[in-house]
Structures are given as structure tokens and as C-alpha cells.
Prior knowledge:
The N and C termini lie far apart (46 Å). It is built from 22 helices and ten strands. Strands 1-3 form a two-stranded parallel sheet. Strands 2-5 form a two-stranded antiparallel sheet. The protein has a two-stranded antiparallel ribbon with strand order 4-10. The model is unreliable at 16-34 (pLDDT under 50). Helix content is 48%, strand content 6%. The radius of gyration is 22 Å and the shape is globular. The protein is mainly alpha-helical. The longest helix has 26 residues, at 131-156. Helix 10 (212-225) runs antiparallel to helix 11, helix 11 crosses helix 16 and helix 16 (365-380) runs antiparallel to helix 18 (409-423).
Amino acid sequence: MKLKHTFIGILSTCALGLASCDLNITPDSYIADINFYQNEAEVNTAVIGCYGGIHAPLNIEWALTELRSDNTRMNGTRSSNDAFMQLLALDLGTMDASNPNIRTYWEATYQNINNCNSILKPEVLAVVENEKKRAQFEGEALFIRAYHYFNLVRLFGPTFLVTEEISIAESLKKDRSSVQATYAQIIDDLKRSVTDLQDITYSSNDLGRATVLAAKSLLAKVYLTLGRYEDAKPLLSDVVTAKGETLNVKYADVFDTTKEMNDDIIFTVRYKSGSLGIGSPFANTFAPQNSGANVITGSGDGKNYPTKEISAAYSKEDLRKDVSMADSYYDKSKDVEAQVAYVKKFLSEVSIRYDAENDWPIIRYADVLLMYAEVLNEVDGPSAGLKYLNLVRERAGLSKIESDAVTTRNVFRTYLEKERRLELAFENQRWFDLLRWGKAIEVINKHIQETEWDFYAGYTQQINKLKDYQLILPIPQSVIDNNPGVITQNPNY
């Protein structure tokens, strides 16, 4: 079990104190008390609250990303309850603007953007007398805000780009900013974060806070998403130089709750068990439904069910499969092996449901190495990126790919895309990768109508091919209703 660091302790106290909001708005009657934050300690607590604010959107993010990909699906076809049907709509791409999962994610994300914006006020940062601490707090808030907007723009397209508090009256006149403007803000935030965090180091009491390597890695991923390989290359090179050209941690140890904050972790969302209000829900959420105590105390919900395709994608030698998923579990009461698949990556024993210890990695060093391999292939050719691709494969127990097997960029991409899928399976990366590669429509339609058709054919409703407009989510109807005649909905919703 991880040490009870100060960071986790303060995070648990912040979990109960985060205010909610639909957009980042301040009521007209609100008079800001610039003296609310009196000193460095109070600003520090507010910053840690922003880390805690990542929990709420992350807790449902799998349904907006992994479930929409070819890695996971629903666990059955017979249920007709509303919660099941709303998740099924995301799986099939038939979601509409009333989907509660979309609204939950949207509101929680903007809530935490608001938390970040409240810290980034000049009058708030001004109470921190120590210049280095002031830069640290600003860099952390900018990093978290950029992380949220990066997810929003990829999921919803044009966003409500709000970087300071606005009144309700002002919010009712505000439409969405363009994708281009959103990315410009994300890049600016991350560049400033890199500068602010450049010379910041943390003690063991602060493990989990954003570092300069995290900011550089996230900025590189933004550039990679935009196809700006030349801009991503030096950032990734900096991270690789700092970390060394090796993977020091066994794959199983990356997700071991007794070895958290290991060398593969660049940025992770921290959870802590013990009825503190900040335990991880995923162990129970992803464990098999009706499995009793055979897999985890309190049974499981059976959500985010691994597909047959992802299971078959691992070779027998690949050490990652047994860490990432299982195809079955042993039912002690019946003395049989129940053929039910489930995600294992975030599984640890719990005393109570939805209160596991497992952190959720956002950026891992293996991810950086694969991004670097991808960028080098695009910029300098396949031979330049092969070493970094092989580093990831070797840790997984796989043989090296020889240079004569990857003579073209296209061949390299095929190897790279498979490696990213298997290395980062169930970490909410697959959907975003398919989007930026321009392969989501092709892959998901094949997934639904071919590779997993024996499952999807069990539904009574018609299963249609995914269309381009379904690659982004609808804006929640509640947001449209609050801003009639101003806010434009995404096309065809």
C-alpha cells in the first residue's frame, strides 16, 4: 500500500469541497473575495483540489473512449434498463444529446476547469510570496486545464473556451470556440506550464503532482494529434534523454498498487482506498457481473467488457495480456471456470465496493517511447524509430523487429499501431489514437459488423455503420437549453 503522503491526505479533504457548475460561470450577484486565499498553504490546498477534480470525469471517461473503440463492448445484449441502453448507445455510436454519461463528463470537466481558473487569477497567485512556488502552482493549474481541454476538443470538437470566471449573463451570450482556437489555448497553456515547472522538484510527500516531463509529454501528444511531428520531436527527445533509453519497470509492476509512482509513470491520477472518498471505482466497475467474491469483494458490474478481438491480438509470449485482462475466472461455488472476460489492469482487493487503491496512468514512459518512435518514423524514416518500438516490445517478452522487416513508413505504422493498442489497452488511449490516425470509421465498422458480429447480432435493434458525424459527441442538451439560440449543436444531433 502506498504511503499516506501529504498530497493524498489533502486530496481526501478536497474531495468533499469541490463546487459544481455547468459552465465556468459566476453568478451576477457574486462578489469575488480576493482575500479568500490568504497564503501559500491555502493556494496549495486549492491546487491539490484540482488534482482531485480529475476523478469525476475520469470515472466515466472509459464509456466515452474505450467503450467506443474496438477494445471493449457491452457485457450482454438482453438488458433493457435505461443505464444499460445509454451505455449501449455509446458503444454503437447512436448516443444523443440527452445521454447522462456525456452530461456527467461535461459538467465534471468544466467544474474542474473552473477550479483551475480560480487559481490562475493574478490576485490569487499574488498571495504566494515565494516566486518558485508561485510558478509551480501556476504551472500545475495550467497543465490540468490543458489536459481537460485536450480531452474536450477531441471528444466534442469546438469547446466553450473559458479561461476566467464569467457571469451567468455573459455565459448566455457565449458560443463555442473553434477547434483551432482551443488547440491554440492548449498549446499556450502547456508551453507556459513547461516554463513554470522547469526547475521544480517534489519531495515524497508530493508524488503525483505534474512535472516538467509531464507537461512536455502532454504537449508532444497534442502536437502529434495535430500532425506537427517536427514540433513534437524535441519535446519527446528531452523526455527520453531525462528518463534514459530503457524501461526499468516490469509491465506487471507498473500497475502494482505496492509499486505506484514507479519509473514508468510520468503522470497519473491518484486514488486512495480506506473510505476517504477518493478510492478507485474501476476494480468493481470492470469486474465480471454476478461474480460474487470470486474476483473481488462486492462483485462487479461487468462494464468495459474486453472484446474477443483484443484478447486474440496478444500473442502467447506477450506478458501484457495477463496483466491487462482475463478471459475467465474460477467460480469456487460451482467449481467451474466461468468464461467471462474482464479488465484486470485496475484490479486490487477492496474492503468496500468502488474503493480500490489503483491509480490511473495518464502518461506513461512507454507511451512516450511509442510516440517518439512514431514521430521519428514520420520525420526521419522507420530505421530511426525502430529502437524505441523494440524497447516496448522487449519488455513485453516479444522479439525485436529487425530493420529489414520495416523498410517503409507504412509498414512501420502497422507495427506501431498494434503495439500502442496492446501496450496501452484499457487506458482510454485507443479511441483517441484511432481518431488521429483517421482510422476510427474503418476500424469500428469492421469491429461491429465483422470481428464481433456474433455478439452485436444478438441485439433486437438494427446495427448501422458508424458515420463521420458520430466521431464527436453531442453537446449536452442541458447546455443547449440554457443558451437557446446562441449555442450550436454538433451536426446531425
